[in-house]
Amino acid sequence: MARPKPETFDKQKTVAENRRARFDYFIDDKFEAGLMLTGTEVKALRAGEATIAESYAEVRGGEVWLVNSNIPEFSHGNRNNHEPRRPRKLLLNAREIAKMTGAVERKGMTLVPLSIYFNGKGRAKVELALAKGKQAQDKRATIKDRDWKRDKARLMRDRG
């Protein structure tokens, strides 16, 4: 069965978004990965509690892991509550893992999580991107373009 195009991921409820990633990196390829979670982690995600601002993904031993993501302990959890910053395994096809491994090792790219969301079936998913870091001048150009678009929209709105 063919996987959907990156723009057509079935996002129902976005839990966490890494808005900084689009500013700090040039986004190349996007992947949809499943998350291997415990019960209290799913409950905390459904409550909308998660941050992926400082997180990244890495390939270890043929598996992809989400590192440094924060899913806080579930408020009504018992002694079996989860550890908030534990590495979480991402579920991907072998071809996708091979593609990521090659890009990270050869091209010096980074695996950056863009968002965590629940799809139409209620499964927790991560939108993962292969990205290349921006230099300072690239970031300044991004700011300049963003300001120009805002000013242009303001001018168009004022003129009618």
Between the first and last Cα atoms, what is the distance in angstroms? 49 Å
Number of helical segments with 4 or more residues: 4
Could you give the count of β-strands? 7
Percent range of helical residues: 25-40%
Count of domains:
1
Order of helices and strands: EHEHEEEHEEH
CATH superfamily: Small protein B
What is the third-level CATH name, the topology? Small Protein B, Chain: A
The major β-sheet equals: 7 strands, antiparallel
CATH class: Mainly Beta
How much beta, percentage-wise? 25-35%
Mean pLDDT across all residues, rounded? 85
The parts where pLDDT drops under 50 for at least 5 residues are: none
Radius of gyration from the alpha-carbon trace, in angstroms:
18 Å
Q: State the shape.
A: globular
CATH architecture: Beta Barrel
Strand-pairing-aware structural class = alpha+beta
Structure commentary:
Its main location: cytoplasm. Belongs to the SmpB family. Keywords: Cytoplasm, RNA-binding. With 160 residues, the protein is α+β, with helices and mostly antiparallel strands. It has a single domain, classed as Small Protein B, Chain: A, CATH 2.40.280.10. The chain contains 4 helices and 7 strands. The protein has helices spanning 19-24, 39-46, 94-106, 136-159; strands at 11-17, 25-35, 56-60, 63-67, 88-91, 110-119, 124-133. It has a 7-stranded antiparallel beta sheet. Strand 3 (56-60) and strand 4 form a beta hairpin. The chain is globular.
